[in-house]
C-alpha cells in the first residue's frame, strides 16, 4: 500500500484516542482496528467495490460488516 491508503502513526494515534471515547463500538485489537481503518481508506480512495479489497487489508465481508455497524452507531 502507499501513503494515500495508509494512516500515518500520528493519524492513527489521533483516531485511536477518539475511538476509545465511543460507547458500544467494537474496535478489537489495536493492529486489527488499524488495518480496518486502512481498508476503509483504501475503499474511499480507490472507489472500488468491497469485493476488490486487497487481502492484505482483510477479507472484504467482515470489513464491510464492521463498517455497517459503525455507521449504524454513527461512529
In short:
By secondary structure, this protein is mainly α.
Could you characterize the architecture of this molecule?
The protein is mainly alpha-helical and 75 residues long. The protein has one domain. It has 3 helices and no strands. The longest helix has 17 residues. It is globular. The mean pLDDT is 91.
Spell out the key features of this protein:
single chain, 75 residues, mainly alpha, 3 helices, globular, IS402-like_dom, Putative transposase of IS4/5 family, Transposase_6_like
Query: How far from one another are the termini?
Result: 25 Å
Q: Count the helices. How many?
A: 3
**What quaternary form is this?**
single chain
Q: Which radius of gyration do the C-alpha atoms yield? A: 12 Å
Strand percentage, roughly? under 5%
Q: Helicity range of the residues?
A: 55-70%
Quickly give the structural class.
mainly alpha
Strand count, sense and closure of the main sheet?
none
Overall number of strands? 0
Mean pLDDT score, rounded?
91
How many domains in all?
Answer: 1
Amino acid at each position: 500500500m502507499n501513503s494515500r491508503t495508509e494512516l500515518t502513526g500520528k493519524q492513527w494515534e489521533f483516531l485511536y484516542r477518539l475511538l476509545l471515547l465511543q460507547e458500544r463500538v467494537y474496535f478489537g485489537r489495536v493492529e486489527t482496528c488499524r488495518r480496518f481503518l486502512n481498508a476503509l481508506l483504501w475503499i474511499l480512495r480507490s472507489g472500488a467495490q468491497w469485493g476488490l479489497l486487497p487481502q492484505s487489508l482483510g477479507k472484504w465481508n467482515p470489513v464491510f460488516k464492521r463498517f455497517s455497524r459503525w455507521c449504524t452507531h454513527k461512529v
